[in-house]
Please model this.
Amino acid sequence: MKKSKLTDHDLVKRFIDGDQTGFEILMSRHKDKVFTYILLMVKKEHLAQDIFQETFIKVVKSLHAGKYQENGKFISWVIRIAHNLVIDHFRKEKQMKTLSNDDYETDIFNSSKFSDITIEEEIIKEQILSDVRVLVDFLPEEQKEVILLRHFLGLSFKEISEQTNVSINTALGRMRYALINLRKLVEEKNLSLTLT
Model:
């Protein structure tokens, strides 16, 4: 059986048993999702790269130390490590402030799904996404996290509940309140979030 077809669980086991390629496959399989999550949280590419490297160093050390328990998905465990490192960074820097979109070094909202629209529409869509992303920062941490995981990373509510250690109902409730609060913020700031 080709190694790339193996499950995360099998690859973790192989890596712990000394097969380095097991970890290489795991990393290439999940690196984009982990990096995107970190970049959405810290908004600076160089900082996201540092935390991304730190995340995988910690993953390797934890696997070798036998700290990984197969109680869910490998990716959820890795994102939890990344999340904790992001929180540690913000605690150290005491930098829990809102950053403007000018602080982005890369456009994280650039997406192929916008490729068949006019330049004007693309500019408007990017502005809408940018406005929404800034508004998300005004939400309480728990609501912000569920929005990022659901709408920016595409996780299911089951994955979100595993990732955040809450029930699916709690995750759904946080999403509901997040959307209510975002609507209020849109009204308060008098933003237009449509193409027309």
In short: The two ends are 53 Å apart (CA to CA). The helical segments are 8-16, 20-42, 45-64, 74-93, 119-136, 141-152, 157-164, 168-188. Confidence is low (pLDDT under 50) at residues 95-115.
